[in-house]
Amino acid sequence: MQVCASVRKVDAPGEDRSVALALANSRRTLPRETVEDLQTVGDLARWLSARGLEAATTRLGSEELGRLLELREAVRELLAARVENRPPHADAVEAINAAAVAAPMAPALCWDEDGAPSVQTRREAQDDFAAVLAAIACDTIDLIAGERHQQLRACNAPGCVRFLLADHPRRRWCSKRCGDRVRAAHYYERTRARPATK
Questions:
Q1: Which end of the chain is more exposed for a tag (fewer CB within 10 A), N or C?
Q2: Contact by Cβ (8 Å): 165, 13
Q3: What are the chain's domains?
Q4: What are 82-123's pLDDT values in tens digits?
Q5: Which among 103, 140, 97, 99 has a CA at the least distance from the CA of 120?
Q6: Element housing 110 (H / E)
Q7: What is the pLDDT of residues 59-86, one digit of tens each?
Q8: Beta-carbon neighbour count of residue 108 at 10 Å?
Q9: CA-CA distance, 59 to 8, in Å (whole number)?
Q10: For residue 107, how far is the Cα from the chain centroid?
């Protein structure tokens, strides 16, 4: 599968209200390719700037890009676990909690064996870029354990890996493109299943 960065992105519902959701969706799939929004340090700078997070950073390089991409994997695992109503991998919870401690008062995510997440508070300080990661981690914790979790969905389009905050109870797709693809596939299946008339 080809990895591309040139395809115009349409934000999924909720990305404007959740930096964690925006990060999770910074890698997505299209019918014949994977689209990666964060391939270079320049991509990282633009992504942070678009979300008002550039002021917290003094230096951006490949190390910071790698740290953000690692955090993205943890965010994606936690969002998927919440949507699928299953316990997440312990290393994803640990990664989010480790990132969150750079916030002045950091929430820490706890996930009980029964599958119910809860929030505790702890303190610690780290470097400047850690504050950016902390903001994302704190938003992830709030998204998973706060009231917004009821709106959290995975896009129902086959092959799509994006998440969304449903603004309507019947919302199932992250974009018009995904909804159109699903409707077109259903139409094709219905017309193909009909017997030919003479």
A1: C
A2: yes
A3: 2-193 (1.10.3300.10)
A4: 999 999 999 999 999 999 988 766 678 888 877 788 887 665
A5: 97
A6: strand 106-111
A7: 899 999 999 999 999 999 999 999 999 9
A8: 17
A9: 27
A10: 19
